[in-house]
Specification:
Length: about 240
């Protein structure tokens, strides 16, 4: 559970806050949705937490527990998937940010583990326009740099869901959560222009779009290391006085 829920006491938070000029909190946002027959429903939460934990190991940030259910409506055809509305997710993140500000933490980074959480971009834009400090991480460019550094073969377009990168991160961070079958579950559907209308079931029977057979723990480790390095630019921007 320590991988998902921070073990900080209130004194830990107090001590960390006393040593920095601006306090930054990191909020992992995952989902609870199908990831084929071999990855758990909580995959996106596990990935977001792995990224956030890597960040917290490298920078003086307050690591928050994850939001575990989000906007997974495109996966509704598969049993086990649970969603909340984009309005609810928007309100949850906004309320968390407001609560943090009341306690003296004026900066929030949302670590998104689910591509369908489009509304998180709106939350960050609106908050920034109000003069609040918030960022969304990782950006597509951060994932692309991580993909190249880790030697991930599949492109970001092809590696859409339960593919090489997600499988690699879980093989590194939570190998006990994978079930047999990812080695033979590759499926490619690069043209997904009607995804918002048809959902995932319009493009895949298994729920997989990507090449999980290419995943490895070594790639997962390098993906996380690269993302932690990329976060440095976000941290500098958010903690500067400019």
């Amino acid at each position: 559970m320590s991988d998902l829920v921070p073990a900080d006491t209130t004194e830990d938070v107090r001590t960390r806050g006393a040593g920095v000029s601006r306090q930054v909190a990191v909020l992992p946002v995952g989902s609870f949705e199908q990831h084929g027959p071999y990855l758990p429903l909580a995959t996106d939460t596990l990935v977001a937490c792995a990224v956030a934990r890597e960040i917290a190991g490298a920078y003086p940030v307050h690591l928050l527990p994850p939001v575990t259910i989000s906007c997974s409506h495109e996966h509704a055809a598969w049993p086990g998937t649970v969603s909340i509305s984009s309005v609810t997710l928007h309100a949850v993140v906004r309320d968390i940010a407001a609560s943090l500000r009341r306690s003296g933490v004026d900066t929030l980074v949302v670590v998104n583990g689910h591509g369908g959480n489009y509304v998180l971009g709106n939350v960050v834009q609106e908050s920034s326009a109000r003069g609040e400090r918030m960022a969304l991480f990782p950006a597509a460019e951060d994932w692309e740099e991580a993909r190249e550094r880790a030697g991930v073969v599949t492109s970001l377009l092809t590696d859409m869901h339960a593919g090489e990168m997600e499988t690699s991160i879980l093989l590194h961070a939570h190998p006990e959560m994978l079930r047999p079958g990812y080695e033979s579950s590759d499926f490619v559907a690069d043209d997904r222009r009607h995804l918002l209308t048809l959902g995932m079931s319009g493009y895949t029977d298994s729920g997989v779009i990507g090449r999980p057979s290419l995943g490895s723990a070594e790639k997962g480790k390098e993906l996380l290391a690269s993302l932690a390095d990329s976060f440095g630019a976000y941290f500098s921007m958010l903690t500067s006085d400019a």
